[in-house]
Amino acid sequence: GPMSPPLPTPRDLPTGLDRCAEALVASTDVVLLAGGEGARRLFTRVAALAAETHAEVTTVVAEDDAGAMALGEAAADARVAVLASGPAWTPRMLPSLRALAQARRAVQLVVPAHGDETGEDLPVDELVDATRLLDAPLCVGLVARAEELGAATAAMSLHARDMGRPCATVFPLQRVGLRRLDGAPEPFPLGSAVSMLGDVGAPAAVVGAGEDLAPVLSRARAAGVGPLRAV
């Protein structure tokens, strides 16, 4: 009979970042890199996948002040994603995001967060800055498991378009972004992160499964976060 295909090795298996890149290529017209190591890793995957599949996705490196203008120049009906990590992107990119928010343009921020994998690595300062500059709280999607990152990215892209305003997808790079999908890694603990979203004033959250969601959603309500959906 025919030979069985070889079993995949860990090197062949996708990561959460791969799933996120697939969702962005499928649901976005323009992907901008605003800076940061985690964002660069994701952008590299998006650009490679777009080229490999001949997808009609424009990829733009917008890490300097002039590059930020690409946000404003995107077509009025374009679906735009901005990949950003680290504090440097906030003052540079958010004025352009604010203009798009005022024009009710759908933009998805994708923020791979660095840190200690405990929930304390949520980039609260950057989200507070974004809320201040946008004159309204961001809707923030938190992703708990690597295998959920693609679905959550797609869901937040749709939500941004439904709301006609910027939304953010946030995930811990170490746990979700780099772990290959060949096992059952411990999920990102959502409880502390959801409580921190209350400090930011986020109106909604997409939360991933992987822990008992009842206390997480209870804490979200207490913190003033209205969960959009639990994945």
Strand order of the largest sheet: 2-1-3-4-6-5-7-8
Number of H/I helices: 9
Helical amount: 40-55%
- Rounded to the nearest angstrom, the distance between the terminal CA atoms is 42 Å
Judged by helices, strands and strand pairing, the structural class is alpha/beta
What is the total tally of β strands?
Answer: 8
SSE pattern, N- to C-terminal: HEHEHEHEHEHEHHEHE
**What general form does the structure show?**
globular
User: What summary fits the major beta sheet?
Assistant: 8 strands, parallel
Overall pLDDT, averaged? 77
Strand content: 15-25%
Radius of gyration using CA atoms only: 17 Å
Q: Keywords, please?
A:
alpha/beta, globular, 231 residues, 18% strand
Write up this protein:
By secondary structure, the protein is of the alpha/beta class. The protein has 9 helices and 8 strands. It has an 8-stranded parallel sheet, sandwiched between helices. Helix 2 (37-53) links the parallel strand 1 and strand 2. Helix 1 runs parallel beside helix 6, helix 3 (65-73) packs parallel to helix 4 (89-102) and helix 4 runs parallel beside helix 5. The radius of gyration is 17 Å and the shape is globular.
Question: Mind sketching the topology for me?
Answer:
Elements: H1 16-27, E1 30-35, H2 37-53, E2 58-61, H3 65-73, E3 80-84, H4 89-102, E4 107-113, H5 124-134, E5 139-142, H6 149-163, E6 167-172, H7 173-177, H8 190-200, E7 204-207, H9 213-222, E8 226-230
Parallel strand pairs: 1-2, 1-3, 3-4, 4-6, 5-6, 5-7, 7-8
Helix pairs in contact: 1-2, 1-6, 3-4, 4-5, 5-8, 8-9
